Records
---
Amino acid sequence: MRRALFLDKDGTLVRDVPYNGDPNKVELNDDILPGLREVQEAGYELIVVSNQPGIAHGYFSEASLRPVVTALRSKMTQAGLRLAAFYYCPHHAQARLPDYRIACECRKPEPGLFYRAAEKFDISLRNSWMIGDIIDDVQAGKRAGCRSILLDNGNETEWVMTSRDRHPDFIVRSINEGCQIVLREALTTERK
């Protein structure tokens, strides 16, 4: 089975532009490239799992998200990275658009996006990781069976640790730091 590094999009992988449906505003964060390259070279698939409530609220359509994903994929390719897949949830419990106002299994902190990726790519979730900038990212990864890293970049505002699955395995200041943990922990596991 394969391993994956699951990544949140907004605020983690790319600069956080609220409800961005514009491909011209997609900018990779500065501190991600060396670490992601090393993790990719170690055999991890890079997969984005992202809540996209802007769709549910009518700020942009699912069709207009496609160019955003294409821009992200292009920027990653230019940086020497391969984005294996981009999974997103368009739903929200308080959606303005009724078709998207549902309780779903794909909106983080639920693990549905991880399960879809695992099935399609034959991924071992227990040997995979999630890096995100809010506790819901951590919780989604843990519910899926991954280990989780919180990128403490100031985007988390709640810090509600009501259950064990909301506690990250590690807290880091950069994706590069998180990637070093993934690689170190993989070596430790392989030696056992």
---
Amino acid sequence: MNTTPTAPPRNRRPFLIVLAIFVLPVLAAYAVYFLFPNLRPTGTTNYGQLVHPARPLPPLALQDADGKPADAAVFKGKWDMVYLAPAACAQACRTAVHLSRQIRTSLDRNARRLQRIYLAPDAQSLAAAKALLAAEHPDLVFLADTAAPGSRATDFFQPAAPDALYMVDPLGNWFMLYPPKADPIVDFKGIGKDLKKLMNQSQID
């Protein structure tokens, strides 16, 4: 006769409770995303206009203020804030350049990761801009677009607003546009917030 005692039935209730805690949120998220697409969040928190998908910069014929061809990797390795300058840098131009400097300064320890590029439409305009701005903006990279029509930076960016700022990532992709608002302080706060978030979350130095 077998006298081995029978093990008491296990109480599975705690296990089922723990399972439900972990599984139900996943199932709920799945249901909301796939079964109720109208409930998906549609807003974005960025201040600028996101370029989606990001667009790789084409080869550009650029030269520096000394008339030498610009480094082919000038848009690689750093986050770039590009300003497509007019032929003459009047007050709106100077305001945009000043704004870009204030934004870069506000990044504190991450300021080194942001490169400001002043892109003039020709070599003569570049020389005049450098004479006007270089002393106040020693970190500003001065370049001139010497490409033929159809292959210029303006053909790629297709500026919809004068004095806008264009963001290029360290891999050379244009991903954000900042048309100027009426109040530079609003732009300073909005763009600065975007870039601080970007620098904190990005793994690209």
